[in-house]
Structures are given as structure tokens and as C-alpha cells.
Amino acid sequence: MGDLGHHLTLRESFDLAREIDPQELEAIERAGMLEPQMGYSAPSPYGQPRVGRIRQGLGIPQPPAPMRVVSPPPRKGRGATINPPNRFDSQVPARFDDGWDTVEVEPAPLQTTLTRDASRSVISWNTSPDLGFDRAVNPYRGCEHGCVYCYARPSHAYLGHSPGLDFETKLTFKPDVAEILERELRKSGYVPRPIALGTNTDPYQPVDRTLKLTRAVLAVLDRFNHPVTIVTKSDLVLRDLDILVPMAQRNLVRVCLSVTTLDPVLARRMEPRAASAAKRLHAIGELARAGVPAGVMAAPMIPGLNDAELEKILEMSGRAGARWAGYVLLRLPHEIKQIFEDWLHQHYPDRARHVLDLVRETRAGALNDAKFGQRFNGTGVYADLLANRFSRAARQFGLDTRESLDCSQFAVPADLRQGMAEPQMSLF
Questions:
Q1: In order of start, what are the domains of the chain with their CATH numbers?
Q2: What's the pTM value of the predicted model, to 2 decimals?
Q3: Which helix (H) or strand (E) holds 328?
């Protein structure tokens, strides 16, 4: 047997002595009975022969290693670590290592793209018993803040995009949002109730610094004396104080800053392009000093990751001038389950399993529960404890007051375009 015999067991020597058909061996491997990478066969009465050495001894070439599905490394400045297909796709692509060094070690930064949205209506309506509003306006679809937990990500699937990286890089905008909103408010029979800004994507995300669509919407609502509520993660809201202050004096506006964590490292990983917690707290203070009612939304609370910060977030917000508070337990509908789980394993592999187990504990054993009445707060001992902690802290820091906005001042202003058209017509 030569040198090879010194490294083979009795059963391996017996196998080498047999006449083995190379094609038969290939067929066995393809059927899954052998594992070429590991070099072992299925169990036998004689133990497990080292098939890799048998091949070598017989001069049979080793088959190529199977392609290995891999997860891409996190992209700098982006929240999601993957770009999964949306739930409406019939085919599911997979990223794999084919052995030819085609997998990126450092993926190139993704640029944000903007696409014009040609919607003919901008007011979206809902009848959810969990929400405190029945209508909303969203100038954008997709959000560059890139919050990995964002419950709005699955809505990007309706555009044919992925709820992952596409959601934070492929944005659509409504350039005529103010004009369309005005037409809708002028319709006969329109009954005013507070319009919500920031229900699906952030109205003050970075792109609004140049497009200023949110400011245009506020200008229309100001002219109509229409009440509005705003939820944002950005201190860019301070740009529009010249509109918000007069509206606040007429009890027409409330602004809520969403503060998820006070930990800057966690924030940069979890919501990479949103304003820092310090800037959000500063915005609460500036709004309060200007007379604009401001609150804080500690959302989402993620068990085992940021929920220990709940009381501190409320305390700091109360000191800054917030007058009310709210919270929402982490929600993982549709594709967000996969996106959040991959993000956890990429950034916090040591606690990923623990966090997901706690989430399941608050969602009746699943990662999400969409039932009305419990989808925002969850169920079970852990969820009840979080609710009790929030109620106690809100009372302690004076964040349990909420005023209603005034809808009685709504009035349709004169159409300036009609006023200009009448004198022109009199010339003929």
C-alpha cells in the first residue's frame, strides 16, 4: 500500500482493494449519500471510510465544492444589511460564493435615487382602532433614515422594490403634493380632522432639506386653518418654526419627536441617517420654548436591546420640555422579520438569540402579532411589565397630558387663481 497504507483504516484499505466505478461514486455523492467537503460517507457497519482519501488513491478528481450562500457585510451608512425580495416576487435570488472571488469584501456605498410619484391623491385614509387619526399625508415613499426596524418597510413591496436596502435608497417623491392636497381640501363635503404627517415615512428625512415638500404641505394647512400632527426623528422640523408657531397659537399643531435610544453607537447601527438623540432632545426644547406643543415617542422598544433606556428617555424628554409621551413595542411584519434578524446577527451576534426569544415572548410565540388592540404593546408578562414601567415614568416626569386640536377654525380660502382670471376675462 506504500505510504498511503499507513494512514488508512482496515475498512478503507478494503474499499481501495475493491474495484470502484468513478461514475457510480459521482452518482452517490450527487444523491447526498456522501459529503465530498467533509470526506465522509454515510454510516456503515464498518465505520465511516474517508472517501476523500479513497478518491485520491484511485486517482479520481475531487468534485467542486458546492456554492455557499453568504450574507453581505453591512454597508456603511445604511441600516438594512440585506435586500430581500418582496413577498410578491415569484422568484427568490440568493447571494452565493462561487469560488471565483466574486463576493464583495467591502461593498460599494449605495447612492440614493429619487423617482417622481404621479399620484393623483395624497390623503390616505384608515379605519384602524389602534390609531388616533383617520387620515395622513406622506410626501415621500421610502425613507433615507434607514431605521432597520421600520414598520413601513413592507410598503415598498407595492412599488416592486425590496423592503431592505431599496427602501432606504430608492425613494419616490410627490412634487405636486401641496397642490393636490389643496384640491382635496376644497372638495365639497370635506370634514376636517387632524391630518398626520410622518405615519409611513419621515416627512423631514434628509432629502426634504432641498425638496421642502413638507414645508409646502404645512403652508397649505396653515392657510386652511387645518389641524396637523407631526412625528419625526429629525431636528429639521425647526426649519419650519415660522409656520408652526402661528399654527400653535391657534391650537392647530402638535409635534412628536421619536427617540429610540440615547446610546450613540446603537443609534448609528440601528438608524444610521437619522438625527442624533441629542439633536432630537434639542428640537423638543426649541419647540417648547417657541410655544409649539411637543412630545416624545419612545419607539420602538426592543426587548433586550434598548428597552432598559425607557425611563431615561422619558426623563430627558420631560426635562427638555415634552408635554406627553408614547411608546410602541417592536413590530416585525412581513419582510422585516428577516431584515431585523440578519441585522441582529451581523451587529449583535452575542445577544441575537436572546432578543428574538424575548420578542416571541411578547408576541404569543411568534415574531409578530398583527391583532388590533395588541400589535403596538404586545402581550404576556414582559409586555405588561414594559407597559407598567411606561405608565409610571410618564406620570413621574409629567408626560401624561394631551390636548385636542381645534377643528372648528377650518375654512376654505379664496382661490387666488380664480381671482386673477376674472379681471383678465373682462378685457375681452
A1: 2-58 (no CATH), 113-323 (3.20.20.70)
A2: 0.77
A3: strand 325-329
